[in-house]
From TrEMBL:
Membrane-traversing stretches: 12-31, 43-62
Organism: Steroidobacter agaridevorans
Domain of life: Bacteria
Keywords in alphabetical order: Membrane, Transmembrane, Transmembrane helix
Name this protein carries in UniProt: Uncharacterized protein
Length: 64
């Protein structure tokens, strides 16, 4: 595994986590950042992060 590929995967996962955290922060936690971290690190938040990550990988691979 090259450093480029590893960096791409880690970066994509971090951005997926940030996107889910932002959704939790704005919609479910009522602008409480600590509650948003708790909700994101719960198993449902981690499933949402992994799903977002995999959808991004699939969408990127399906392109031309």
């Amino acid at each position: 595994m090259t450093a480029y590929l590893l960096g791409n995967l880690i970066g994509r996962f971090v951005l997926s986590y940030a996107l889910i955290w932002l959704v939790m922060f704005l919609m479910l936690s009522r602008l409480n950042w600590r509650d948003a971290f708790k909700r994101t690190n719960h198993w449902t938040g981690l499933i949402a992060t992994t799903t977002t990550f995999l959808v991004g990988l699939i969408a990127h691979g399906a392109g031309p």
